[in-house]
Write a structure and sequence with these properties.
The chain is α/β, with parallel strands linked by helices and 262 residues long. Helix 1 links the parallel strand 2 and strand 3. The protein binds 4-(N,N-dimethylamino)cinnamoyl-COA. Keywords: Lyase.
Length: 262
């Protein structure tokens, strides 16, 4: 498939590879217009369907992961045209359908929809240059892709209110202290770090990886007792897999496991 607003590449040395998606509208700081979001959705679905891909990394440029939804494209809407058209592409929901892990590798600005996109990923690895923010309030709007919900879950109410109401940006160190990002590395090491994390995940058993993702997301939706009960059932279910037998046999035999993702 040919894309205009993103670049795609497959990386990795092992049998399961990493699908890398680079947001690529550099002149607009990767502002997320409908075309870009539709292409991102198509690329995510293609990697999801590809048995040879274990993990996906989404990244941007040195200057910006993404500076938000495309403001000029939004500017002319009225309430009625926004409401009727469902303003902003439906592909903003696609990340929720992806069962493989998606890592955001963020350098530079991750603002508005860019911050929301990063937060929809399973975890964020940040360059020391990263800046996160939800500045929609300065435009007379509010976040529309989960920012008021995912940010407080990630950083707590006080910091989320501060960022959402004042529109101030958070740098990479503060984002790491607050739990928004999992690690911070020098910009030059960002992709190496993200790809190494993806490669580590690719070597794990596919069913375990997918169930962990599903269960961690359930932690934000279900009561603890219900979610723990689901975890217990999945734990039992994994004893029906080849990979459980292989993983435990490999430990006993003091060798590396060779998972077949079955
Ligand atoms: N949209 C379009 N173009 C943008 C842009 C954006 N969000 N951000 C930057 N650009 C463009 C600039 O217009 C400029 O273009 P030229 O003038 O060169 O043609 C170029 O990128 C470089 O930007 P600057 O010249 O401004 O560069 P600076 O370094 O001075 O400033 C900045 C960088 C990131 C601080 C600044 O550009 C800025 O404040 N940008 C806007 C950030 C922002 O407000 N983001 C939130 C947008 S609202 C939804 C889903 C998502 C959303 C809503 C609903 N649903 C599913 C319903 C999301 C909404 C938003 O994200």
């Amino acid at each position: 498939m040919t894309y205009e607003c993103i670049l795609t590449a497959t990386q990795g040395a092992g049998p399961r590879k990493t699908g890398v998606i680079t947001l690529n509208r550099p002149k607009a700081l990767n502002a997320l217009n409908d075309q870009l979001m539709n292409e991102l959705g198509d690329a995510l679905h293609a990697y999801e369907a590809d048995e040879g891909i274990g993990c996906i990394v989404i990244t941007g440029s040195e200057r910006a992961f993404a500076a938000g939804a495309d403001i000029p494209a939004m500017a002319q809407h009225s309430f009625m045209s926004a409401f009727k058209s469902g303003l902003i592409s439906k592909n903003w929901e696609v990340l929720r359908e992806i069962r493989k892990p998606v890592i955001a590798a963020v350098a530079g600005f991750a603002l508005g929809g860019g911050c929301e996109l990063a937060m929809m990923c399973d975890f964020i690895i940040a360059a020391d240059t990263a800046k996160f923010g939800q500045p929609e309030i300065k435009l007379g709007i509010i976040p529309g892709a989960g920012g008021t919900q995912r940010l407080p879950r990630a950083v707590g109410k006080s910091k989320a209110m501060d960022m959402l109401l004042t529109a101030r940006m958070m740098n990479a160190d503060e984002a790491e202290r607050a739990g928004l990002v999992s690690r911070v590395v020098p910009f030059e090491k960002l992709m190496d770090e993200a790809l190494a994390a993806a490669e580590a995940i690719n070597a794990m058993s596919g069913p375990s990886v997918m169930l962990i993702k599903e269960l961690v997301n359930l932690a934000y939706q279900a009561p603890l007792s219900d979610a723990v009960a689901v975890e217990r059932r999945y734990f039992h279910a994994l004893f029906g897999t080849d990979d459980q037998r292989e993983g435990m046999a490999a430990f006993v035999e003091k060798r590396a496991p060779v998972f077949r993702h079955s």
